[in-house]
User: Which sequence fits this backbone?
């Protein structure tokens, strides 16, 4: 209850108002910051657990962004915007129609998760994979069954990146259970259940597209203990020498096909059938140009051709950069 004014204080206040003066009320309480708290929807996760979730999904955003850059042959950035706690019904009301919703499940989880992708981004990906320019789609429409099948491979790769990001906390194998375009047909949790919504943005050619993950609280509840303990101890975990030697031995014994490409050219079938011993074929590469070295169908090195002990050989000059690898794919 607020402090009651005495009669003398009331008379003094009336005199000051009549004279036009303002009086600053005296306060004996110390200045303390005021924080808003919603008692109807209290936060059920600590700051440490939210911080661990941010670290996990930052890694997922980087890995999925790298995959999209290589698949779409253009620069793609995925930024983690926020991690919010809200009621499941509030999240569902925020969805538009049509939407692009993937119901994600795992044998290690006690429920399902929603992966929401912008329909405009989905149509852009399909257009790009089918050889189009990947222009921004202004019209909102549902995807056809063929488009859903094409996009499913991209979503499954994103779920693989998400599983890798969670592996340090809790091993899980995520898979797509179903697809829905209308949010009214998605019911993975009670309306009053709390949910954790992880909001991201996909940036392509100065355009941004939303991407959200919705975890019902009962799905994350068994994992909350690992978010603070397992994640914090991840960096201090020591690898046993026997495990390290076994990994080194497996890598050392791995075999991959390696080939060097001196150049390439295009000739007609008539010229090809007319080739004979001693003919010269003009390639599209100069003598002084570096040679591409392919490792398991991917360009990994630049090299110089030559001879070593009367045998044809190449000498590696440098490792190919990430940008060059994307171009040559």
Assistant:
């Amino acid at each position: 209850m607020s402090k009651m004014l005495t009669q003398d204080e009331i008379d003094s206040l009336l005199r000051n108002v009549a004279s036009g003066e303002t009086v600053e009320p005296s306060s004996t309480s110390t200045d303390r910051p005021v924080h808003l708290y919603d008692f109807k929807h209290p936060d059920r996760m600590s700051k440490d657990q939210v911080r661990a979730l941010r670290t996990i999904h930052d890694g997922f955003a980087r890995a999925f962004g790298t995959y999209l850059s290589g698949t779409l042959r253009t620069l793609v950035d995925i930024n983690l915007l926020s991690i919010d706690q809200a009621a499941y019904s509030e999240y569902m009301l925020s969805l538009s129609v049509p939407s692009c919703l993937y119901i994600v499940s795992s044998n290690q989880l006690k429920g399902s998760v929603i992966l929401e992708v912008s329909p405009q981004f989905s149509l852009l990906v399909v257009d790009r994979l089918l050889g189009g320019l990947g222009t921004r789609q202004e019209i909102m429409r549902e995807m056809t069954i063929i488009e859903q099948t094409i996009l499913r491979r991209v979503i499954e790769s994103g779920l693989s990146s998400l599983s890798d990001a969670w592996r340090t906390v809790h091993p899980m194998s995520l898979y797509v259970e179903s697809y829905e375009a209308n949010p009214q047909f998605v019911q993975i949790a009670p309306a009053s259940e709390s949910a954790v919504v992880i909001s991201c943005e996909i940036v392509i050619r100065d355009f941004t597209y939303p991407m959200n993950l919705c975890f019902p609280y009962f799905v994350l509840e068994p994992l909350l203990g690992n978010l603070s303990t397992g994640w914090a101890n991840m960096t201090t975990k020591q690898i046993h020498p026997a495990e390290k030697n076994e990994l080194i031995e497996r890598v050392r014994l791995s075999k991959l096909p390696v080939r060097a490409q001196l150049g390439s050219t295009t000739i007609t079938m008539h010229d090809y059938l007319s080739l004979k011993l001693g003919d010269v074929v003009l390639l599209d590469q100069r003598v002084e140009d570096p040679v591409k070295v392919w490792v398991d169908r991917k360009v990994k090195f630049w090299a110089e051709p030559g001879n070593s002990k009367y045998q044809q050989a190449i000498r590696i000059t440098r490792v190919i950069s990430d940008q060059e690898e994307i171009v040559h794919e």
Q: What stands out?
A: The beta strands are 76-87, 100-106, 113-117, 174-180, 194-204, 207-216, 258-261, 291-295, 298-308, 311-319. Residues 230-235 have pLDDT under 50 and may be disordered.
